[in-house]
Amino acid sequence: MQSRNHYAATLCPTGSGRLAGSSDLCTVFTALALGKRGTPVSLREYQYGTHRDERLDHQVPLVAAASNGSAIIYLHGGGWIACSKNYYPADLQFLCNAGYTVFNVDYPLAPEQPHPQMLQSIFRAVAWIKRKHPYLQRVHMMGDSAGANLAAMYCVVCANPELLPTFGNEFAHTDLLEPASLVSLYGLLERETLLGDDPAKMNAIMRLFLQCYGGLAALKPGKPRPENAITPLDLDWLEHPPCFLGVGDIDFLYASSARYARELQARDVSLTHKVYPGAPHGFLNQRHAQTPKLKQDVLEFLAANS
Predict the structure, then answer these.
(1) pLDDT in tens, 77-102
(2) Dist. CA 299–CA 58, nearest whole Å
(3) Could you identify which of 31, 110, 153, 273 might form a hypothetical disulfide with 114, taking C-beta atoms 3.0 to 4.6 angstroms apart as the criterion?
(4) Contact assessment for residue 124 and residue 133, using Cβ atoms and an 8 Å cutoff
(5) How many domains does the structure of the chain reveal?
(6) What are the DSSP E strand ranges found in 22-137?
(7) pLDDT tens for residues 111-122?
(8) CATH of the domain at 205
């Protein structure tokens, strides 16, 4: 099985498993190097925390005229227990092509680092980005699958600072970046549709993901204690940034996005909800017929909220 750093080690000729450090010259990847045609970018890796997996890639369009001054903070999927940022640079190239700077974030995984440690790492990454890049004015939180869940949780907590002590008590609200929008690609945004009428009969893989991340409390129906909340609808909140929800109609998390869409509509939150016929879970990273449409829809949403 490939390690979390396989992709980085492949691209780094030293075989060190890192692309570049804060004191290194940036590595320039052309469209060919990333396997796609598009705007050339620089890509550097930085450590934002003390854990070995608290790292992020900073992808920057090299053509000054291409930059639109906005940044994307991207969180990868993998059910909270697998995958890494190292599989995503080529898939995020479309954002750089549109002029966005991208912070592609790794985070420690469950079960070694369960909730809330994983979410705390996201706060740590965003606080690092704000310290190191004080010029940033507009940032968008984006993620797929488990990353979409974490991005949504960050947005809800940041938009409702009274929730911050529960999950990110090492930070003040002023330490963080307020997202201009949330882009959720087939994320778990509530638990009811996944647990079903009888949680004991839920899919074994889904049970594994939930229990590794949220413990036994995540398998119990009803609203949990605030410290055990792992989805936005486990929390009480009032404010929410503009939101894009993208999901395939055959995705096992289709119902979760639909349920969240109904909740946002009921609360008058600005919402773009797109359903892609025949698209499975994870189709951003696949050569699926609907992937170009998804990317175009995301860019249109970001442009409208930048």
Answers:
(1) 999 999 999 999 999 999 999 999 99
(2) 19
(3) 110
(4) no
(5) 1
(6) 27-29, 41-47, 55-61, 70-75, 101-105
(7) 999 999 999 999
(8) 3.40.50.1820
